[in-house]
Amino acid sequence: MIALILIGGVGTRLRPFTNDFPKTLLPVVNRPFLEYQFDVLKRHGVRDVVLCTAYKPALFHRCFGDGRRLGLRLRYVHERRPLGTGGAVKNAQPYFRDTVLALNGDVLHALDLGAFLDRHRRRRAEASIALTRVKDSSLYGLVETDTDGRVRKFLEKPSWDEIVTNTVNAGAYLLEPAVLERIPAGVNYSLERGLFPQMLEQRARLFGYVSRGYWMDIGTVEKYLQVHIDILSGGAAIRLPGSRRRRGLCAGRGVRLGRELTVDQDGCVVLGDGVRVGDFARFARHVCVGSDCAIGKGAALEDCVILAGSSIADGAVLKGCVIGPRCRVGRYSVVSAGAALAGGSTLRPFSQL
User: Fold this and answer.
1) 240-310-11 Cα angle (round to 5)
2) Which CATH class for the 2-217 domain?
3) Domain map (residue ranges) of the chain
4) Which CATH superfamily is domain 240-347 in?
5) CA distance 325 to 310
6) DSSP per-residue letters across 316-328
7) DSSP bridge pairs for 163
8) Buried-most residue among 244, 245, 265, 303 (CB within 10 A)?
């Protein structure tokens, strides 16, 4: 089976971090996010992957090449203008002859692809949508199915009195080749708002499959931070990087640690390669520091992400924030919860953000 990963989005809601990089290449626990998708595919024996690019396509080639290093065969299909999810699938049609797995590239999930495909085939589905359950159903478009899993209705961000289910589109689809004939070529077209409602209206064999594993869309700064916390806390069941592990600390190669560090025993701290940590620095809960960063003497970090090449000066306090690459946070500055510092920014000493 061939997997198609839709990675053409500009990532507007993740600015300022997507000004320089597509969101699927942003590091999550010091790996390009898309590599987590690759891991899921490889675990289920899928090695043939087509990447549907639009925004900054050269960066994907530079990062992954032909995929050999990752144990994959990667091919690329570029959109000269945005084609939407359906248009992107149609654009890649020459690459497949059998059932195709299409994935939204900005979702971290633990989908059981084998069970998904088995259910798709046993139901003789023309298309199947992976679904996940959410706590607050009013924030999402819902997908209602019958007892056999056949899709009955789509509800776009319903009011509470309209809610009859808590299953939402998880961003993974199985499509039979014949379904692609329903998609117009060369135009911006949506699977979610075009193809699937049309199939429902025409009573085509459209089914849902509820995935019970972890699921997170990293499309906003808040969720980008949350996915780090989920991984570091063990909630996403993903193995952490790091060559040295002790007392809640995972350290990469060439890390230099100062004296009398404080590390929260109930949390987890990941330090990328070449990180330098000053004396008396304090780490609380869950912290991820990218490669070649410097953490100053007495700095205090809690529930935050610092991307590669940044410097956090002596006495600075960071809590619940994301610091972009190559930033300079001055002495005794405070960066508070919800803040997002764009790459290359400088925060002068004693500032508060």
Assistant:
1) 70
2) alpha beta
3) 2-217, 240-347
4) Hexapeptide repeat proteins (2.160.10.10)
5) 6
6) -EEES-EE-TT-E
7) none
8) 303
Contacts of 316 (CB under 8 A, 6+ apart): 296, 299, 300, 329, 330, 331, 332, 333, 334, 335
240-347 has the same fold as 2-217: no
The amino acid at 122: R
d(CA 247, CA 13): 36
Q: Can you give the pLDDT of all 353 residues of the chain as single tens digits?
A: 899 999 888 778 888 888 888 889 999 999 999 999 999 999 999 999 999 988 888 999 999 999 999 999 999 999 888 888 899 999 998 888 899 999 998 888 888 999 999 999 999 999 999 998 877 666 667 888 888 889 988 876 555 555 567 788 888 999 999 999 899 988 899 898 889 999 999 999 999 999 888 888 888 899 999 999 999 988 777 777 655 566 788 898 999 999 999 998 888 999 999 999 999 999 999 999 999 999 999 999 999 999 999 999 999 999 999 999 999 999 999 999 999 999 899 999 999 99
> Amino acid identity, residue 34?
L
